[in-house]
Amino acid sequence: MKRQLAKQLKAAGFPSSARPVGHRFYPDERNERWSETERELGVIITADDVQNRLQDIKDGYYCPPLADLIEACGDRFARLYIEKTLWTAESKSPGIYAIADSPEEAVAKLWLALRTANP
Q1: Cα dihedral sign for 42, 62, 101, 30?
Q2: In whole angstroms, what is the distance from residue 10 CA to residue 88 CA?
Q3: pTM (predicted TM-score)
Q4: Tens digits of per-residue pLDDT, 15-41?
Q5: Domain-wise residue ranges, the chain
Q6: Pairing relation of β-strands 24-26 and 86-91?
């Protein structure tokens, strides 16, 4: 998932995982405790990060796993499919679609669209 989409999820109130170890997050752009590369490309959260950098993780942008994204869409989620190289996430009704390069991004965009359509 790209930084901008993770940032949009956070701004829209997507819940962060209680167990983020093993998942990607992007440190806040202004947080100089992380290297420029880590801030730009993101990092995979370790147990050490949770123990010693929890506030940094809270301040940054978490990339939720696919299962959490689908669960957040609730009963409005219909399906996820791929055509050639593009993933499409679809709602049950009114038929909202979101297309992206990865399944996580497609469902994240669907979740954002569902919030906009009916918060």
Answers
A1: negative
A2: 22
A3: 0.89
A4: 876 667 898 999 999 989 899 999 999
A5: 3-62, 66-117
A6: unpaired
